[in-house]
């Protein structure tokens, strides 16, 4: 029979407003939102949400499950990673297809689908990395947009020789994205500087995790962020800066917006919830646990600064860059920080960390919280209103949230397949009491019961309304009237003959 679920007595929180309503779901779709819906169905499973918030499930815009990286593979695969996501109130992830130089984007896409489809427990989608440039890439991008539901491509200014594009290639990729109606995402760090300075660090004898930050301080991220925005603005291509990790990068995003460029900034849970002072921790294993690119910043006021911008609308939405490695994997870089696999957790804890540091701290209201954890992602990546809102006809991906209950984050109790948690010991207000994926209760007061392989690949169409309306405005280029000009009639300097 049909799967029926009635969520009674809660307060629905959408990005635009908050209101008291019951929510009735059937076969994975929200069918009714309104007062006193008891009569709608006699055989529905009823859950009581009195005194609780009923919010659209989180959308994590940025994950790397089972990513092959640094000669090893990220510990959270598509099963454990999406299970952890659901445990924390995130009901959809957008992961990255990320092949190396000269690898076919289409083949890589199929490979990643093959890894994900049998394992994912929640709905998901893919961004695709453009890690090299050529005719085949140019063609594959079109196929990915038209046939595979991909509407976002990530380009790297870092990871020299592995993923990095030159500025002219970046510009071509931007032009292609714009032509196809796909959003251009950029990993903004200066890869040449990082390569040169990390070598210098090693020569100076700085081989520990602190060297990872010291050779790529925040100016290196700020420069690349400003450069990427400058290049995108030359071809009037909307741009999305992934993992905004520093004040410098955030300021570059703000400057771009002030100038009227279409720029989106994505801070991640890691940089909103903790900082880079951990790279100087006495325990090597602890310090290495935080190594990611771009690094967390040693300036401890960074997380609150970024949270404030996120609350204000200067930054837009959040992901996690979830890309986890166990201690023995991190130990590949035990004597050389350049070999520490880059990546940290976040997919499970993002919802709680942002509630704690944003809403509980008094920086943002619950509606803005829903916007930055779910709705804006759905709108930007063009899956709204299927996702990102509690509304009739939308997917029943829902979180019943207890804003007052607390939990303490720990690797001992988390659902990740990894032995470290960068938020260890952080007490968070805000707990997902119930998590509903495709209308199915998968988390019930701490009990997690997911279905392996039940997540669906969610195809996304080119440019969302949000992105499109903003570039249309900018596309109106002002062309000056031609000036009638007298020809030059003055003296001409004679250059000496070449010897
Ligand atoms: O350290 C990181 N961020 N690992 C994942 C790859 C990336 O650049 O997002
Ligand atoms: Zn990146
Ligand atoms: Zn330790
Ligand atoms: Zn990433």
From TrEMBL:
Carbamylation allows a single lysine to coordinate two divalent metal cations. The keyword ATP-binding does not apply. It is an enzyme of class 3 (hydrolase). GO terms for biological process: pyrimidine nucleobase catabolic process. Keywords: Hydrolase, Metal-binding. One of its GO terms (cellular component) is cytosol. The modification N6-carboxylysine is found at residue 154. Its cofactor is Zn(2+). Its EC number is 3.5.2.2. GO terms for molecular function: dihydropyrimidinase activity; metal ion binding. InterPro entries: Amidohydro-rel, Hydantoinase/dihydroPyrase, Metal-dep_hydrolase_composite, Metal_Hydrolase, Metallo-dep_Hydrolases_sf. Gene3D superfamilies: Metal-dependent hydrolases, Urease, subunit C, domain 1. Residues 53-442 form the Amidohydrolase-related domain. It catalyses: 5,6-dihydrouracil + H2O = 3-(carbamoylamino)propanoate + H(+). Pfam families: Amidohydro_1. PANTHER family: COLLAPSIN RESPONSE MEDIATOR PROTEIN (PTHR11647:SF1), HYDRANTOINASE/DIHYDROPYRIMIDINASE FAMILY MEMBER (PTHR11647). Belongs to the metallo-dependent hydrolases superfamily. Hydantoinase/dihydropyrimidinase family. NCBIfam families: D-hydantoinase. This is dihydropyrimidinase. It comes from Geodia barretti. The lineage of its organism: Eukaryota, Metazoa, Porifera, Demospongiae, Heteroscleromorpha.
């Amino acid at each position: 029979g049909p799967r029926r679920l009635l969520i009674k007595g809660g307060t629905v929180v959408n990005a635009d407003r908050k209101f008291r309503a019951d929510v009735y779901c059937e076969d994975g779709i929200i069918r009714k939102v309104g007062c006193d819906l008891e009569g709608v169905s006699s055989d529905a499973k009823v859950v009581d949400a009195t005194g609780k918030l009923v919010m659209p499930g989180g959308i994590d815009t940025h994950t790397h499950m089972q990513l092959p990286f640094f000669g090893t593979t990220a510990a959270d695969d598509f099963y454990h990673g999406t299970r952890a996501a659901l445990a924390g109130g995130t009901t959809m992830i957008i992961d990255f297809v990320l092949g190396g130089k000269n690898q076919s984007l289409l083949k890589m896409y199929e490979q990643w689908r093959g890894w994900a489809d049998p394992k994912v427990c929640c709905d998901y989608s893919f961004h695709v990395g453009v890690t090299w440039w050529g005719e085949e890439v140019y063609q594959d991008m079109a196929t990915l947009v038209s046939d595979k539901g991909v509407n976002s491509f990530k380009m790297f200014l870092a990871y020299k020789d592995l993923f990095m594009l030159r500025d002219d290639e970046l510009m071509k990729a931007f032009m292609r994205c714009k032509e196809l109606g796909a959003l251009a995402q950029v990993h903004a760090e200066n890869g040449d500087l990082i390569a040169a300075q990390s070598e210098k660090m090693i020569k100076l004898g700085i081989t520990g995790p602190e060297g990872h930050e010291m050779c790529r301080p925040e100016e290196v991220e700020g420069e690349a962020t400003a450069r990427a925005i400058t290049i995108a603005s030359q071809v009037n291509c909307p741009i999305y800066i992934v993992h905004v990790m520093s004040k410098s990068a955030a300021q570059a995003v703000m400057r771009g917006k002030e100038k009227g460029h279409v720029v989106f900034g994505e801070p991640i849970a890691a940089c909103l919830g903790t900082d880079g002072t951990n790279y100087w921790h006495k325990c090597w294993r602890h310090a290495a646990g935080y190594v990611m690119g771009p690094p967390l910043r040693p300036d401890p006021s960074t997380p609150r600064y970024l949270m404030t911008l996120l609350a204000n609308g200067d930054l837009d939405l959040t992901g996690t860059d979830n890309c986890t490695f166990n201690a023995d994997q991190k130990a590949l870089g035990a004597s050389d920080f350049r070999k520490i696999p880059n990546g940290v957790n976040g997919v499970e804890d993002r919802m709680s960390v942002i509630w704690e540091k944003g809403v509980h701290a008094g920086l943002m209201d619950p509606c803005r919280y829903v916007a930055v954890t779910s709705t804006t992602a759905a709108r930007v990546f063009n899956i709204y209103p299927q996702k990102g809102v509690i509304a009739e006809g939308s997917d029943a991906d829902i979180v019943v949230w207890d804003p007052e209950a607390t939990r303490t984050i720990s690797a001992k109790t988390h659902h990740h397949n990894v032995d470290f948690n960068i938020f260890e010991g952080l007490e968070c207000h805000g707990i997902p009491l119930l998590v509903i994926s495709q209308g199915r209760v998968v988390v019930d007061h701490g009990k997690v019961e997911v279905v392996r392989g039940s997540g669906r690949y969610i195809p996304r169409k080119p440019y969302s309304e949000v992105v499109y309306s903003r570039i249309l405005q900018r596309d109106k280029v002002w062309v000056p009237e031609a000036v009638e000009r007298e020809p030059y009639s003055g003296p001409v300097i004679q250059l000496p003959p070449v010897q």
